[in-house]
Fold this protein.
Amino acid sequence: MATATAAAVKAKAATAQRGKARAQVSDMQTFTWVGLDKRGIKIKGEFVSKNVGLVKAELRKQGINPQVVKPKAKPLFGKGGKAITGRDVAIFSRQLATMMSAGVPMVQGFEIVAGGQNNPRMKDMLTDIKTEIEGGSALHEALNKYPVQFDELFVNLVKAGESAGVLDTVLDTIATYKENIENIKGKIKKAMFYPAAVLAVAVIVASILLIFVIPQFEQVFKNFGADLPAFTQMLVTISRFMVSYWWMVFGIFGLSVFGIIMLYKRSDKFAHLVGRMLLKLPVVGEILRQSAIARFARTLGVTFKAGVPLVEALDSVSNATGSVVYNDGVKRIREDVAVGHQLQLAMRQTALFPNMVTQMVAIGEEAGALDAMLFKIAEFYETEVNNAVDALSSLLEPLIMVVIGVMVGSMVVGMYLPIFKLGAVVG
């Protein structure tokens, strides 16, 4: 009983000591300084410390004569810099994994990575995580403060690596995983962005013609004193409407887009409907399906390899496929596996995975090499996504040119039809 009491007191004291250390570290702030080195050359930089006096003392130790030391100015409108992207997190993961594999202490590794950041938001986040670690927090606890940048999967993998004492290996695995996932996301964005951007330009050009160009032609048509061709009259009517109510047209369009986005975020039924419709689209639907399978296999393989139990691994994967339909499918798989079903059988029940995928998973389960088989599935489907996106780009380029040509060309022809008609009459 006395031993237990002593252990409890010791644990309480350790907790208090960590809290005190964390409070001390949290008093730190960033200072900018300008000074002269031993050659009299002006140099400048930044330093994290408690006050100006400590910064000056540290600079003098390094042989620098401080001229100006002041707290770093904060941006006028909140934090400066661009938003932290998944690509930024992938690069950070690779840098930290490389340094820890080389034997660099974690805190020093964070300091080096943060010092090399050009994005103030990323730098502030890494500095804060370093501060938490210096205050006694484990890495997964510090990362958990930023759930947007480091999701549940990332945190759970780091926690597993810390528990097993193989954090450097797990970080290397996470880095590779994040790089592959970001590459797939980039491919999907490329497949979606190009046609959307070109069609948006076509709509803008058509709107300019309707609002500014056709009204000028309308004044010319009035001088003819003749009836306009039906197609030209239709364009003139549309132009008049756009000139008078352009604000309403663009307002309705903007509100519709905003409403659809909000409905997608707040309504599970609508999100599932959109997800199913996207998967049924020709070419694009197949790319989305292959991407979801690749991300499922890659994510499950990484978590399972890190030593996370299968049920917990599936729990982490359930929001990582990039598809609402597949996310729900993974949740059903988790429920089936939790009651004792084999993974390949649970996957078959969802009817979302091709026979080849379930067969390879079955072989992996029987051979005790599930993670290796999942990585092979991921590599295959990642290659398929790359090839499909390249093929889609080649297919869409001429198709989009035809659409733009028909849209703009028909307007040009409609505007010149009365002129052609007048020329025929005169002739």
About this structure: The first strand starts at residue 29 and ends at 36. The radius of gyration is 31 Å. The beta strands are 29-36, 42-49, 65-71. The chain has 16 helices and three strands.
